Amino acid sequence: MRKKQIEEVKAHYDADPALEWKRLEENREEFLLTTCMMDRYIKPGDSVLDIGGGPGRYAVYYARKGCKVTLADLSEGNVAFAGTKAEEEGLPLTALAANCLELDSLHLGQFDHVFLMGPLYHLLEAADRVMAVEVALRQLKPGGKLYVAFLPTVSGLIYCLQHESILPEARKNPDDMRHLAAIAAGEDFEGRGFTQVYCFALENILPFMEQFPLKKLHFFSQEGCLAPNKMELRKRSEAEQELWLETARRYLERPEFLSWAEHVMYIGEKE
Questions:
Q1: Integer Cα distance of 97 and 247 in angstroms
Q2: pLDDT by residue for the chain (271 residues), tens digit each?
Q3: Residue 192 to residue 201: CA distance in whole angstroms
Q4: How far is it, in rounded angstroms, from Cα 50 to Cα 58?
């Protein structure tokens, strides 16, 4: 991971540590549907390592549920924000500023659950993406669960659908046009997003994960079938929104809805 790239990612998150916390509050579909799947395995008293955990939205949630949580993030701002959020609720949380590729040097031990929910968005080199998963696996107990999030290339198209006038602007931007071309070609995309980002073509995610000693448990859309219409959905009554969330839970793993997702997750068990 190049020094310039590291500094860019750090600067982005240090500039507004609350941004990702707010994003998951506003995009509650993503958070609620993701934790719905994770809660199948994560129980009170379990140990959790949240690599690239940002401002701690998931870390605080699982600390609140009685888990022993350690958060490691590249951004000192994120780490401080997560620590403050935990302190406000009187929750024990170990929060460390660290590069996801260098965790072995911290000798953290092994955990029941390891989250890798963000680092793969920013690792542009193929060797770094492989190393990130390998490092995460070394922090995981045998039989433990690994939770890996990906940005699919189609997320860019969904974003254009959600926001008025975005697509006309995108057609003037060379990076955005390359992104749209990658979707059409079924290829991964590397380029400018909210920082430099790496997006996986959906069909390339499972082959990527198959190189690691993991048993696949789940591969699902973190927004279910809701992402393309989430802006419209928020205008509806609370009761109807809850009904749609309940409906979406039934379809999280349906392959035909993976292409509706802004984020997808792989859950695997370490063999």
A1: 38
A2: 677 888 888 898 999 989 889 988 888 999 999 999 999 999 999 999 999 999 999 999 999 999 999 999 999 999 999 999 999 999 999 999 999 999 999 999 999 999 999 999 999 999 999 999 999 999 999 999 999 999 999 998 898 888 888 888 888 888 889 998 999 999 999 988 778 899 999 999 999 999 999 999 999 999 999 999 999 999 999 999 999 999 999 999 999 999 999 999 999 999 9
A3: 16
A4: 8
| Distance between CA atoms of residues 158 and 143, nearest Å | 36
> Taking the chain, what is the end-to-end CA distance rounded to the nearest angstrom?
28
Nearest to 158 by CA among 262, 72, 73: 262
- 52 contacts 75 by C-beta, under 8 angstroms: no
**DSSP H/E element including 265:** strand 264-270
Q: Report the distance separating Cα 12 and Cα 161, nearest Å.
A: 25
Predicted TM-score (pTM) of this structure? 0.95
Distance CA 155, CA 166 (A): 13
- Asked if residue 260 lies in contact with residue 158, where contact means CB atoms within 8 angstroms, the answer is yes
User: What does DSSP say about strands 94-97 and 68-73: parallel, antiparallel, or unpaired?
Assistant: parallel
DSSP 219-230: EEETTTT-GGGH
